[in-house]
Design a protein that fits this description.
Layout (H helix, E strand, L loop, with lengths): L2 E10 L3 H11 L3 E6 L2 E5 L9 E4 L4 E9 L3 H13 L2 E5 L10 E5 L5 E5 L28 E9 L2 H10 L4 E7 L8 E7 L7 E5 L4 E8 L3 H13 L3 E8 L5 E7 L5 E7 L10 E3 L4 H5 L8 H5 L3
Parallel strand pairs: 1-4, 5-8, 9-12, 10-17, 13-16
Antiparallel strand pairs: 1-5, 2-3, 3-4, 6-7, 7-8, 9-13, 10-11, 11-12, 14-15, 15-16
Amino acid sequence: MGILRMGYAEIRVTDMEEAKSHYERTLGMRHVEDKDGKAYYRGWDEWEHHSVVLDPTGVGVTKFGFKVKTPEDLDYFEQKAKTFGASVERMSKGETHEVGDGIRITSPSDHVFELYNEMTVTGNDVGFINPEVFPRDLVGVGVPGIDHALISCEDPNTTNKFFEDVFDFFAAEQVVTSLDDDADIIGSWLSTSMKVHDMAIIKGPQGKLHHFAFQLSDWSAVGRAASLFSMDEVSVDIGPTQHGITRGTTIYFFDPSGNRNEVFAGGYHAYADRPCVKWTPDMLGKGIFYIDRELNERFTTVFT
């Protein structure tokens, strides 16, 4: 039983042509197709139909998709969501484009998560038999795929409990009000795999997106991305820099609609039996931006 990974993020944008240029030309995602007004993309090393959907209806996130291991997992997570008291409904094959049967759950943070076991397989750009290490025709940053997302909510304690009790995630790192056992959670970095985080939550406005991230291979790839962002006049929030939380290297930047993106590399392997790392509020600046050791105003105030 289990959730394998985040499969897709559906993002609202204000100008489809500007958004397409950003995700295709700057980030180098593969345009799969346009369907019913939406644009579908995947990274070069992703093998299913899409991982990013652009929806021309505003800003922010419409929904996330999580792939589960078996069809039986859908029944398992449906029951767990009902027991928790979360809103859950069944979705039929094709209701979400190129996605099979699934369930749609609304979290206590008012975010929508679709769990599914099947999506149309398109294949990646290098194949799975004697593959090259990357495709020859990379464009822009050439992101291999999506990595994680950070969402905001008014009650991180309840939302963290939802991810742990319903989705079987575990917290790799947390920012807490104190080191007491009954401390409140300010932020939580949660994993369903060996990644240091698949989803993170932070205290803030209800139902909003802070950022969603793309994976890169290493620090040099992050630095190359920074140069490309300058070439394309991308609005950069901060970076290149390193996180104390997760230890990953990063650049935060905005798409043309104002949705915050991240390119992320590194981080350590997380295991469910590894003690959760705790950060106190006085060290939050160093936790988020290890080198500068202080937060900029945009990072704490801009949500979509």
